[in-house]
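task queued by scheduler; priority normal; single chain, no ligands, no partner chains; default sampling; output format set to structure tokens
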Amino acid sequence: MESRLRIVQAMEEIVPEGSSQPSQWRLRAARHSPEPFDSEKLPPILVSEIRRFLRVANELERESPRAAYLCRFHAFEKIHTMDQNSSGRGVRQLKTSLLQRLERDEEVTKLLRLQKSDARELEYLYLKKKSENALEIAFVLMEVLKAVSFTDGHEQFLPAGGDIKEKSESYSPYNILPFDSGDSQNAIMLLPEIEASISAIRNVRGLPSIENSCETGLPLDLLYWLQNLFGFQTGSVSNQREHLVLLLANMHVRQNPKPALATKLDDRAVDELMGKLFRNYRNWCKFLGRKCNFWLPSVKQEIQQHKILYIALYLLIWGEASNLRLMPECLCYIFHHMAYELYGVLSSAVSLNTGKKVVPAYGGQNESFLRNVVTPIYKVIYEEAQKNKNGVSDHSKWRNYDDLNEFFWSTNCFKLGWPLRLENDFFCTSFSSKQISTSKESPNETCEWKWLGKTNFVEVRSFWHLFRSFDRLWTFLLLALQMMTIMAWHELETPLELFDPEVFDGIMSIFVTNAILRFLQVVIDISLMWGARQNMEFSQRLRYLIKFLVALIWAITLPVSYATSQGSSVCSTMQFQSDAGNFCISLYLIFVLIYLISNFIGVALFFVPAVTHYIETSSWLACSIISWWTQSHLYVGRGMQEAQVSLLKYTIFWVILLSCKLLFSYHFQIKPLIEPTKHIMKVSINTYDWHEFFPEVQNNAGAILAVWAPILLVYVMDTQIWYSIFCAIFGGVCGIVRHLGEIRTAGMVRSRFYSFPSMFNGSFVAHPSQKKKGSIFKDILKNKVCKSTEAERDELPKFAHVWNQIIANFRSEDLISNREMDMMIMPLSSKFGGTSARWPLFLLAMKFSSAVNMARDYVGKHEKLSRKIKKDKYMFYAIKECYDTLKNVFNFLVVGDLDKRVLRALFDDIETSIRNSSTPIDFKLAELPVLIEKVIKMFENNQTRLDALIISFQGFLEFIINDMMVEGGRILDIIDSSYGQERGGDVSLMQHVSHMFKSDSRGFIVPFSQSDEGTRNSVLRFPLPDKGPLKDQQIKRLFLMLTVKEAALDIPANLEVRRRISFFATSLFMDMPPAPKVRNMLSLSIMTPYFLEEVKFSEDELRLSQDGGASILYYMQKIYPDEWKNLLERFNYNITDDDTRCWASFRGQTLSRTVRGMMYYRKALKLQAFLDICSNQDIAKGCIAIERDKNQKNSQNSLAAKLDALIDMKFTYIISCQMFGLQKAAGDSHAQDIIDLMSRYPSLRVAYIEEKEEIVDGKPHKVYSSVLIKAVNNLDQEVYRIKLPGPPIIGEGKPENQNHAIIFTRGEALQAIDMNQDNNFEEAYKMRNLLQEFIRHSGQPHPTILGLREHIFTGSISSLAGFMSYQETSFVTIGQRFLANPLRVRFHYGHPDLFDRIFHITQGGISKASKTINLSEGVFSGFNSILRQGHVTYHEYMQVGKGRDVGLNQISKFEAKLANGNGEQTLSRDIYRLGHRFDFFRLLSFYFTTVGYYFNNLISVFVVYVFLYGRLYLVLSGVERALIIDARLQHIKSLETVLATQSFLQLGLLTGLPMVMELGLEKGFLSAMSNFILMQLQLAASFFTFSLGTKAHHFGRTILHGGAKYRPTGCKFVVFHAGFTENYQLYSRSHFVKGIELIFLLSVYNLFSMSYESSIAHMMITYSTWFMAINWLFVPFLFNPSGFAWRMIVEDWADWNKWMNNVGGIGVQPEKCWESWWNTENAHLRHSGLCSRIIEILLCLRFFIYQYGLVYHLDISQKNKNIVVYMLSWFVILAVFLLVKIVGEGSRRLSTNYHLIYRFLKLLIFLSVLAGIFTMLCVCRLSVMDLVICCLAFLPTGWGLLSVAQTLRPKIEEYGVWEPVKVVAQAYDYGMGGLLFIPIAVLAWMPLISTIQTRVLFNQAFTRQLQIHPILYGKNRNR
């Protein structure tokens, strides 16, 4: 009462009293038009308490404005009570707006009140809503009524609302299963398997009672009992209750043989779930030597109950664990202790300490588990993640998820105790040790608390990780190189010469090298693991020590013994004589044999993987000792061996590949280099062209290094090229074997269509007794040889029904027109005779016209004509259907007995002639075309007028009787017999025919309804029915068959439809598991992470122009003109804005498109479930007709309800909209678009993270929750709410977003679809088969990840999009096919992959989330799966659409992200462990398909630099001239091979070969070659060269300095122009600087080189380098839309100058000014480690070689080689720096107040510089060429100094010289920008360049006759 008065007073203070008269209020009441108050845009803190009142008010607005007012007033009361000071964010604004609305409505609504008082008004509405069963509204009204009644003193009106409250709460929102909604008759609750599962979890008999358990109206079950025991959250319990029931139900229904009682849960289902769920827990206990805490009772009836309790306990722990879900062994630890407590409670054990019954350590209070167990561990994760400093901090400074989880791999984890000892070092997150209290009771007892550090691994930034992780690969390559070098040096001719003593001794030195490399590996391993030493067990430390000592001993013993054996002339007493000479066994050989013992054992075990697997997984002591020595004692990485057959397959592959690679390297790289090397070593060089610091170096070591270095680098790298070649060949063969490309074209679809039903029946129709398919060879034999030539009758209806659904989806997607749909469907009908399903018209139409022409021109016997027609099945079907249809239609039209007898006689004559094979004799077939024309005219224009129809029909009969039939007498006799009774005499044929089809005696035509009444005069049924099979199917189909001829070959016209049909047809012939019934299939969940991307294009986005170009709608109308036309046709040219928005959104990379595609799964499953239970007759009727027959359309027993219930049990779709809560609170339109999506698809669910503030102790406190919502009445409704221990996004955003939502997923399989993906109905239809892959692998490990191929749907946007599409397609098809089998190293590379959900939720989730190191989060799930004995397969019979970036900048950001991710992967523990646990050949596959690919890209770029700097050294030092003159070395073949090999990688041929092979398989090799040639004409080589630079730059920088981060690409659909400034920011350091450096190198080399006789030869040998340099500089502008348009050039220049001159500062974005960008671009150097900085400085020293070498070639130096010349050159650098410093100081001090003096100072400096140059020209013999050389010398030096200064920035800033450095840096960027801009402006000035560029960039658009210029330059209606 008092609070209400305070509210009124508050309103009076805010809203002034009005002076309006009652009449004015009545007038306002009469004009009152209710408007809803925004109930959705609320502060998060008020949502749960206030929103329901505001929503009810909006709903009651029109029915009772006064009740709506009272609901809003009550909401205001509650808001004021909750936050009186309006301190919450957004509360004050809500109060103000709500008060304004209340003031406006207060008096008006009183006049509109239906009852005498507010209480009576509310009571009336309350009773009404109660009677309507709207209990939620009734409950809200009751609460408002209670407040109003107490305030006004009308308690008598207050109803007994307890029952309403109870009922309204029982009708709480639910997700899938309405446990608490009182809806026990819901269709899904009536499923026997659901009933069995619910009955099992509600079996609480025998469970001990729990004290202090809260009483609710909910039915007691096992999860509720656990909630009261351990204190789980109510929302989490409800969520996991549904989760558990669905898991048990799905496993129960699949049991075979079926249980005797379907409603009793089968024990086998419980055991199956328990085995899967606790597989990791059991392994963990076994690894740590602990016994599993599963204690089962001896009473059989209670065993199942206890098992379900353990399962439920784990699911409840997992469901509430938040970020701890990413630490699976941590969950095992928690479960281990809580399961023990559960056993204590179940067994009523008594505590020895207290003497009371055992109770859980943390009790069962609300949120006890979250508060006491999850939160302490979460705080450790959170605090450690904060030390990452957003990716800036070094990985070794903080513990990531893996470090914290691996703490539980050691028995030390049990020191944490239970309850958790928070004083344990595990909870310490500070680097410094400190004293803490060990207990609350004894605060004086303290202990030292120290940071544990890293666990088992340290991620240190170093390139040594590549050697450390793949040491066996590098050892093999180096030893092979050593052997080949020795063989080439000795010029071996035959293999027998290997046993020559000298050669053999040389080759034996490889073991010395091996020992040194192994010692190096051990040293690197120990040094990089040093940071994790504190957490190592003693056994691991001992292992590292022993390995170090053993490696050290061998590294000393073998070299010493080898040197001794070489120096000694006395051999051992054991000697052998051979043709090759004397062979002695020395001490060195004995040591080698001992050294190789472990290798011999390893080779033997390699060929018996089962033994190795046993040794690694066994707990036997001997096996443990062997495993301890060979590998670290870790929980993961054990038992990863493949089966024998798989091992042999990839071993043979790599043996062949390595043999080819080594042969090539020997003959084309090593051997040709030996002879030049010997010559170089013999040349004596006495004079140099510069000051030589080491003139006494023997054998010209510098020259040899310059020659050999690029060859050695290419030798290391070219295995990647060989892999690409072999992958293309073998992958293509695998594709052929798997039937890939079986149906490639529309013509092949037509020719093979007759076989589709039988293939469809074999794969997609669930049969009662299914047999597994045999081998691929048997399938080929069955499909190719033994398949039936005609589909069985019972196969057609199901295939036809599915086919028609596919075509209908094409139409709903506007891919085909109405006419095309009519041509492509297969009619299903049981009326009018004929077959139950008919072939589509696009197969028959052309065949029918061909048959008519064939018959017209045919001369001969009937049998031959019949054979020719029957030879073509479609032609025979077309003729037969046309005849049957005409017969049916005529029989339908004709009613009179005479007419029926005439027609019957006519058709009898035709059929008799066919049976007697006398058709050419009895009929004049030449007249067939005329007859067809008459039939066409009959149905074309005569369906509206009866007289015209009669005349046409009479003409038809006259023609066929008179002109076609040789003897038509029998027909005339029938007419005569009737007509002669009325009139005698002879009559003409026309008179006979005209007597037919006359009107009745009254002159009227008999209407359609009277057509069957008795015997009447001859009439036709008229008018024809508007609907039904006659009109819709037969007549329309007949008309199309007769009229459509050659045009049928172009159906379907849409290329996308052709592609989809071809692939679907191809998949019918591929090996896939047979389909189970939907009821027996595995259940599936889809999850899509969403952040802030586009949901659905808004109207403004569609209509407004994009960056001055065309609007999105205009663009799409031009890109998809046929689909836009189909849309207009579908809506009869009356489309709404929402239709337009959907149409455009379904063609962009939007969430709407993804959701529509994924919901096709549900649609397909529902169709499959319908086909499973229906007969062919039911299929023809359809679901709606069946329900109409049974009168069950709207009941829970209806077929549709049962199908929906079954699909709900099998399929769920969750969108993880991380920011939905904030978007909705802010009124973002994206939130409403998401709600619209849920309304459109009722089964769609959205999970989001809610962040709200709560006032605790007077201070705001943020509370985070995971919330699941669904849509009800176009509003979001909360289903589950689970409180979190803190913000869940503390690592990488996407995996954390997935992790928070994964608890709401269901089922046994999970597909984590990205939001730039799409799906098709026909592909979704295969999901049931695909899921069977999880269980069909008999004798092999069950797969844990199923890989799928992807189709890139953005390939037609531009040439760049096409390049990315082809590149991506080759990777996701032939690449992944070969990775999966035979190489067995496919991981998780695509978001369509399906996860074994139960496996992954118990093994750490579907991705890793540690900040920065897990940037490429997806691939780590594959790594984790393999390391935990998972298995990954790949299947190509199903594909999912995917959008890719279409602009160069987007593509570059995406590739930079991948390169950054692979750089971080290189440092990760997963790569290290896989590299050490794989066998050698699987290691090779792993390396060259993951980080090795990027490292080899880096090497290929590094080769160019090494080659050019090596040549620069030879040229500038004068060594090259000496070699040419003295040794006559001009052409070194190996160097040419090096450049050719590097070009292979540079020009994109590495991806080109697999791409051509894959295109050849799927489209034909002619098409593949034409596409490849077209790509080259579109400058694909330039794109791939540019892409090479992107990968190399970002991969190298990430390993060296870090700085990896997620780079949003935007997924833009419209191609737009990127400004020069944007391009410069993006590519300056990655491409432009390097391109200019290459230009400098090539220029200097060209000026001073004498290697080749002509400059042409020089250009030929370095063409690839010139090509690379030019492309790195100009590709961003070449592939930039309108990049050479003069208008754009002018705008870009203005923007560039503005950007360069803007002043930077705090808060200024890099896009706004040069200074901010420069600081951001070099930020990685400020956070880099010491070693990385040293390496960076050493790399910068290369720029000083220009100055050092070139100053000695100046004319002014007068050939003086003294070091003083070089030292004097530095005075020029110093002078420039001083001038910059003077100008800078002058600008700072004089430019403002003494501007004239400042300008005079600059003039003076300029004149002084000119005077100095002029003086040197005149006095010191300075030439013009010297000025050019000085530029080439000093500009690189200046850049090198800048680079060093940036690396040492903190030190330089201390000395106050940073400002001049910044000025010089800005000058360099200005200069580079100007150099780039000049040629672009010149080209833009030329008129044809822009046109040519547009043609190259948008060739596909021109091919489709699309006008691209209006799109680029912005023609839309808003301009």
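post-processing summary
- The mean pLDDT is 83.
- DSSP finds 86 helices and 14 strands in the chain.
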